[in-house]
Amino acid sequence: MLHTFVALVQDKPGVLTRVASLFRRLSINIVSLTVGESERADTSRMTIVCEAPEHSAHRIRASLYKLEITVDVDEVGRSEAVIRELCLIKVSAGPQEPNGLSSRSQIFELANVFRARVVDLAPESIMLEMTGSSSKIEGLIQVLRESNYTILEVSRTGRMAMRRGHHTSRVLKALGNPNATPTPSNLAKPTTDLIPNEFEDVHEEEE
Amino acid sequence: MSNQTNTNPTLTGAEILWATLVGEGVETVFGYPGGAILPIYDALPKFPVHHILVRHEQGAAHMADGFARASGKVGVCMATSGPGATNLVTGIATAMLDSIPMIAITAQVSSKVLGSDAFQEVDITGITLPITKHNFLVTRAEDIAPTVRLAFQIALSGRPGPVLVDITKDAQQASAPFNFEAAAPPAFRPHPMLRAESSSIQQAIELLRQSKKPLILAGHGVIQSGAEREVIAFAEHNQIPIASTLLGLGAIPTQHPLSLGMMGMHGESWVNHAIQQADLLLAFGMRFDDRVTGNLASYAQNAKKIHIEIDPSEINKNVKVDVALIGDLKEVLTLLLPSLQEKASERLQPLVPVSQPFDSSSQPGNLSSQSFDLSSRSEAERSALPTSTPWLREISAMKGDATVHDIINLPDNGHLYAAHVIHDIWREAVAAGREKETIIVTDVGQHQMWEAQYYKHDVSRSLVTSGGLGTMGFALPAAIGAQVACPDKDVWVIAGDGGFQMTAAELSTIVQEKLPINIAVINNGYLGMVRQWQENLYDKNYSASPILSPNFVKLADAHDINGAHVNLRSEVTPTVTRARTSRQPFLIEFHVEKEDFVYPMIPPGAGLHEMIRRPTKDPLLETAEDE
C-alpha cells in the first residue's frame, strides 16, 4: 500500500542521501519525494510517498527518526491531510492532430473542467499546469490520452502533504476519519501512534 | 588547553581536534598516520594523549571497539584519507552491528579538491553512511570542536554506535578560536518515540501476572544500560529463568540459579526448548537476531512477548510483540519493579528489595564491581533463592541426558578438544581467583561458540566478541583495546587458526606497547565453522576450508613473544597458568581435534526446537565409550 511520510530534516548537504539510502536499504521503492523549505529556519520539509507493506509503516517511521538529521516525522493518511501535487503537461496540438487546429479549443475545454491553466501555447503544442490530488492529475492525463491527443511530456512534482487543522467531528466524519472524536490532541498529532503496538494505520489507498 | 575556558585561544584545526578529544576525556587513540592526516599527527605530541600505532587500520577500529566494550567508554581510532579510511570500514561495521560507542577520525583531502579524485581521496562519509550511526564531513577549523563533541554525544546516547568524523586537510591546517565549553552540543533530545507508556506497563504487568511459564531473554542491552542488578532483581522477584544472547553473556552470572545460559543456534537444547514452550517472553535489550530465533514461523508460538528496547525501529522488526516498552532498560525496569511489588504480593519476597533504589552513581566502566555476587550473600539469602517452581523443574527436566554427553563431562580420551581448552582456561582463572578480573576476547567461528558454552562468565564486559557482524580477525586487535582499557585485568585472546592470521600483524603492536596479552590459538587445521557447515549441509565437500598455518609459536618468537605448543589435555592448565602469571604477552598454540563439531546446532532455516543434538555415540570418543 502507499504510505505518505512528512519529515522535517536539517537543511544540510547529504541529508537527501541519508533519507534516500534508508529506503534503498529496506528495498522500498520511493513513488515520489518532494523537498523544500519549511516554516522553520535551517529545516527542510520532505514529503515521501512509498509503496510498502502495511506493517512496515512503523519501522520506516522509526528508522527515519533514527537518522540524526531528522527533526520530526509524521505519517499522514489521506483523510487527515491535504495532499497536493503540481503537474506540467505538454500536449501536441498542431494541425496534424485528429481534430486539426480545433483540437486547441477542445484541450482548453478539458483544461477548464480540470481547473488546469494554459501556461504555454506554441504552434505545435500546449502546456497545461495543474495542481490537485494525484487522482485528479491522473484523470486529466487519462482523458487527454483517451481523446487521442499525444502527450509529449509530463512533469510531476510528487505529492506534498500537510495535516489538516482542528476540525469539528462532523467535518472529520465527512472526511472519512475513523478517529473522529473532537479531542484536539489526537488531531494535531495523534499521540497514541507513538507506541508501535498501538499504532493504527489509518492511511487509505489513493483512488 | 581545554582548561582555558575564559579565553579563546586561536589554535589550528589539528590542535582543536586534540584539545577537544582531551576535553572529552580521551587518553588513548588507536591510529595510523598518512599524508592527509599529517597535520593532526604533527600536533599530537603537544597533547596528553597516548597514541597506539597499529599495523593495519582495521586493527585500529577493532582496538577502539574492544576498548569501548571492555570499558563502556567511547573508543577512538583514526586513519588517513583514502586507503586508511577504507581499511577502517570492517571495524566500523563491526561496531555498528553490535551498537558500540566509537569515534573514527579520518582525514580528507583539502576541501578545494574535494570530489576531484585527488590522490588518496575517497568518499568515506558516503561509504560509511549505512554502517555508522552518523557521520560528518568537516571542512572548516571552527567546526571541528562542535562536530567532535556532537559525535561523542551521538555515539553514547540512545542506542550507542560508531560515528565517523572526516576532516579535510585544510581544516586541520587553518586556525580558529577554541572554546571547549562553547562547543558543547545542545542537550540530548530524547527520541520522541522513546516513551514507555503507563498503559503499556500495566499491560506488561498483566501479561506477567497471567503467565505460568515466563522467560527472560537478556541481550546486550542489559550490559549497555548497566541494568544487571535490575534484571536479576526482576527475575528473582518473579522467579523467571533467564536465557542470554551471545552478547548478553556475563550480565547474569552463570552460577545464578535462574541463569540458563546462551540461547539460539548453538544454545543448549533445554534453553531453546524453554523458549519454545514458554508462555511469556520478556525480551530485555535484545533484537531477535536470526541466530537467536531460528525459523521465525515456528518461533515461540506459545508465548506472548514483551519487548523492552531502546531503539523503536527494532520493535516488531523480526518478531511481532504484544507489548513494547521503549526506553532505556534500566529506567523501564525501575518503573516496572515497584508496580510489580504492589501487584504480586503473594509471591516470594525478592532478595533485593525493589523499593530500595539501586546505586546508580557507580562509575561507568566499573560495572563489574556492581554486578551481582552470589558469594556476598548470606546463607539464608542463598537458600531463599527460587529454584523449584514447576516451570523451573520442567526446564530442568528438559536437560535430560544432554549434559552427560557434553564433552567436558567425558573422561580424557587422549584427544584434545577445543571445549576442554576453553573450559580449562576458565577453571584456571577460577582456581587463581581471577575469574572476575579476566576478559576473554574471541574471534569468530567454532571456538567462539565453545567459548560461549564452556567459559562460565560471571561479570559484565568479561566477554568481548563480534556478534552481529561476525568479524574474523577481530580478537587480537580487540584484545589490545581491552587490555589498554583495563590494564590490571588478565586478557585472553581465543582465536582460531584462520581468524588469527587475518590480523596477526598486530602481534607487533602488542610488543611495542608492552601489553601482557595471553593468546590461545585453537588450531584445528580448518576454517572450523565453515568445515562444520560443509560437513553437515554440503555433503562433506570441504571446499577451501583446510588451511595451512605457520608455526604460531615461532611466529610469536619472531616478535619476541614467548609461546608454547599444547597437544595434551594434561598440559593445558599448567601452560595456561604459565602464560597468565608471566605478565608478558604469551602465545599458546593448542593443537586440537581437527573435525570437531559444535553441538547443539540449529541448522539454518530450522526451528529453534529442531536442533542437532550431541551424539550419544561419537566415533571420536570410542575411548570414553569403552570405559
Q: Would you give an account of this structure?
A:
The complex is a heterodimer of chains A (207) and B (627). With 207 residues, chain A is α+β, with helices and mostly antiparallel strands. Chain A is built from 6 helices and 9 strands; from the N terminus they run βαββαββαββαββαα. Chain A has helices at residues 15-25, 57-66, 103-113, 134-146, 169-175, 185-188; strands spanning 2-10, 29-37, 43-51, 70-75, 81-92, 117-121, 125-132, 151-156, 160-163. In chain A, a hairpin with a 3-residue loop joins strand 6 (117-121) and strand 7 (125-132). With 627 residues, chain B is of the alpha/beta class. Chain B has 3 domains: 10-183, Rossmann fold, CATH 3.40.50.970; 198-359 and 370-398, 3-Layer(aba) Sandwich (Rossmann fold); 407-599, 3-Layer(aba) Sandwich (Rossmann fold). Chain B is 36% helix and 15% strand. In chain B, helix 1 packs parallel to helix 7 (141-156) and helix 9 (198-210) crosses helix 14. Chain A binds chain B through residues 13-14, 17-18, 21, 25, 55, 58-59, 62-63, 65-69, 72, 194-198, and chain B through 125-126, 129-130, 133-134, 137, 154, 191-193, 195, 197, 200, 311-313, 315-317, 321-324, 326.
